[in-house]
Design goal:
The chain is mostly beta strands. The chain has two domains: 51-126, Immunoglobulin-like (Sandwich); 136-224, Immunoglobulin-like (Sandwich), CATH 2.60.40. It contains no helices and 19 strands. Strand 9 and strand 10 form a beta hairpin. It is rod-shaped, with a radius of gyration of 41 Å. 19% of the residues are buried. The model is unreliable at 227-234 (pLDDT under 50).
Length: 234
């Protein structure tokens, strides 16, 4: 068996001839000259390209710049609306894609032989770091009332509310608000909230509401139910 090594690269779609002569076997018999003709042709490409995204899909706390790379020469088409599957009429990838909010990136590549990759769909979840403390309000607010008040505390986002009714500042060891608070006597209600990111409303201020519970006599004098020697006017 002989291996034929060309002295340079062969061109596609080109006819070549190889002539063998002068070879002898071990007994000294010379072979008859022979010529072999052949033509170079390209092997059909039926393998679709594969595209990778960097960084990969996942949860992030800041905007991401996504690079799409095919493993061969190809055109990449993509969409970012999360609904539309890309086609060859979609946006052509030419530079990294900036993703600054939660996005579903869909894409595929088509190589020069016309092979199309299976559609890929990647979800990038962007959660901006929360550094804002919650805000809690009381309803009804503090004031003078002639009867028991049921006070609801509401935070403007998911949070745990801590409170006291004895005038001391609450801490995370204080009572956790789970249901409206019944106030039947003059009370100083103090409270604050801590959100799920750990931001504490107490950094800004502990909220205070004073509820004065009493009766207003016909004389116009306000008499409290836990009178401590002082009288309030109307």
């Amino acid at each position: 068996m002989y291996n034929i090594i060309p002295n340079g690269p062969l061109q596609l779609n080109t006819d070549y001839s190889v002539t063998f002569s002068g070879a002898k076997d071990l007994a000294g018999n010379a072979m008859t000259a022979a010529t072999f003709n052949f033509k170079t042709t390209a092997v059909a490409d039926t393998t679709p390209p594969v595209t990778t995204a960097s960084p990969p899909a996942g949860a992030y706390t800041s905007a991401q710049t996504v690079t799409l790379t095919a493993n061969e020469t190809a055109t990449i088409y993509y969409t970012t609306d999360g609904i539309t599957a890309p086609t060859t009429s979609s946006t052509v990838y030419t530079s990294p894609i900036v993703i600054n909010s939660t996005t579903i990136l869909k894409f595929f590549a088509k190589d020069v032989a016309g092979n199309s990759e299976t559609l890929q769909s990647l979800t990038y979840t962007i959660s901006t770091l929360d550094t804002t403390p919650p805000t809690t309000v009381a309803s009804p607010t503090g004031g003078k009332y002639t009867g028991t008040q049921t006070v609801a505390l509401t935070a403007n986002e998911p949070a745990t509310i801590y409170y006291t009714t004895n005038g001391t500042d609450p801490t995370t060891s204080s009572t956790v608000y789970t249901a409206p608070i019944s106030i039947a006597a003059t009370t100083t209600l103090k409270f604050y909230a801590v959100d799920t990111a750990g931001n504490s409303e107490a950094i800004i201020a502990i909220k205070t509401e004073v509820y004065t519970i009493g009766t207003q006599a016909t004389t116009g004098i306000w008499e409290t139910s836990n009178w401590d020697g002082a009288l309030w006017g109307p």
